[in-house]
Design brief:
By secondary structure, this protein is mostly helical. It has 2 domains: 39-112, Orthogonal Bundle (Cytochrome Bc1 Complex, Chain D, domain 2); 121-238, Cytochrome Bc1 Complex, Chain D, domain 2, CATH 1.10.760. Helix content is 46%, strand content 0%. The chain has 11 helices and no strands. Helix 4 packs across helix 6 and helix 7 packs across helix 11 (203-214).
Length: 250
Amino acid sequence: MPPFPRFRSVVRPVFSFLLICSVTLAGPAPAAPPVEDSIAQRVLACTGCHGAEGRAGADGYYPRIAGKPAGYLYNQLVNFRDARRHYPLMSELLQPLSDDYLREIAEHFASLDLPYPAPARAVNTPATLTRGEQLVRRGDTQRDIPACARCHGDNLMGLTPSIPGLIGLPPDYLAAQLGGWQSGVRHAHAPDCMAGIAQRMAPDDITAVTRWLAAQPVPAGAKAADAPARPLPMRCGGVPPAQQDGGLTQ
């Protein structure tokens, strides 16, 4: 008879004994470290696209959300969840979340006071920048386009709690949002004032506004204003009525 069966009959018990000893000596596997239960830990899913601490994605499309007014961020989260805005990744992520949870997320990012990077260098013609500054600062009365600064603040950092800043954002993101309103892909609470404004803008106007805004540095310590310096030029559904009373043209 070949020797292999006897060899196996000896080796198998020895191997089993050594395996048992090694497991016994090693002891139980170390427990996984506890996961921090905080809003900062729970919103890491957001920072995967919007950058560390919500500072903006590196691709130039996912916008900064850190330091934006809480009411604005909350409205956008609700709009994605309720299909006023369309981006499947955002919609599916937010679909099961309650209003209270969305408000907690918005307040977390709004509370972050982080410095802005310098604007990216870009080649713009003087005519484009001149037209962009005109629309941002003075508007175009002939086409019934109010100045961006009338609602977004003289420093263009927004108005608490619901109007966002316009500087410190990449031009591709700004152009995509105006294009979304113009085409009807993006919606806000009625009356949707931004849709009406965007639909009166020519393609060259959108290019000029976004290029000029993206070229502006954010001053150190700049923040959204607590109240408008003058009455808003039109009623907007996402803005609290108390900030819109009086002086409305529409």
